[in-house]
Amino acid sequence: MTSDLIMRTPLIVANWKMNHTIEESLKFATYMEKDFPLFGKVETVICPPHTALYSLSVVLTEHGRVKLGAQNCHWEDHGAFTGEVSPVFLKELNCEYVIIGHSERRQLFGETDEVINKKLQSVLENEMTPIFCIGETEEERKSGKTTKVVTAQLSKGLEGISTDYLSKLVIAYEPVWAIGTGNNATADEAQEVHKTIRNWYTKQAGDDIARKTRILYGGSVKPDNIGEFMKKPDIDGALVGGASLKVDSFLEIVNYDNH
Ligand code: PGA
Question: Does 102 participate in catalysis according to the annotation?
């Protein structure tokens, strides 16, 4: 277990969703980069709205402490897809991560496992790291289907993706009932599903890759519960929505180890 933890750098990702203007984003990132001394051991990523990516890429590249991610992209590199953003454009902006398959994209914008599979492939081909989101609804959990749902999302989402690419993914377990509700999974509940995910990954990609793959928890992560999650052996970080919108709260989460 100790060697696994050494192998997996903790990763904390801010998912701002459709929040923060360019001005607000810049203020946040500048404060974080310049004025805050800690978060040494943790890899930190901000995923702002697409409109703020360019401005943030300038600030973040200059200081290099916080990395940049996008919340979504199309699977094609170019073409007649009005309103969509290509992974090539994100790469050009120094995005290192792209969130794929968030439950809001699945539920509100009709993204299917097949679409998510194409997007994962495309992000990997464009040399960025997908943060692949999976998770069950409340009804599915209550009827005992969590393992079935999560492993089906994994196998459909990753169908045909090479072992080499499987070693470059981050997975985020985000139970739908915990997102934006304040009703987080307990650390034990999350650990149980993370273990299931890692076991599935071991079968699919081999022990070595599975032990190196980071699995994040997401769903009502806050400064006062992050510490509990991070103590668990298969939880390697967090995808944070609401509590990432205020810089002080996000910094508390990133510095969970220094409280
Ligand atoms: P939340 O969102 O932290 O506001 O629950 C998490 C997410 O949707 O990634």
Answer: yes
- pLDDT digits 0-9 by tens, 38-65: 666 899 999 999 999 999 999 887 777 8
Annotated catalytic residue, options 20, 74, 102, 194: 102
Q: How far is CA 227 from CA 74, 122, 223, 231, in A?
A: 35, 34, 8, 6
Compute, in angstroms, the gap from residue 87 CA to the centroid of ligand 1: 23
Q: Cβ contacts of residue 138 below 8 Å, gap of 6+?
A: 176, 177
Helices (H), the chain: 2-7, 22-35, 53-63, 87-92, 103-108, 113-125, 138-142, 146-157, 163-166, 187-205, 207-212, 226-230, 247-254
Query: Which positions ≥6 away from 74 have C-beta within 8 Å?
Result: 81, 84, 85, 86, 87, 119, 122
Report helix, strand and coil shares of the chain as percent, to nearest 5: 50, 15, 35
Residue-level pLDDT at 1: 47
- Contact between 201 and 210 under an 8 Å Cβ cutoff? The reply is yes
Q: Is the pLDDT of residue 19 over 80?
A: yes
Q: Of all atoms in ligand 1, which is nearest to the CA of residue 182?
A: 5
- For residue 101, pLDDT over 50 is answered with yes
Best of 225, 239, 246 for a ligand 1 pocket test (most atoms within 8 Å of beta carbon): 239
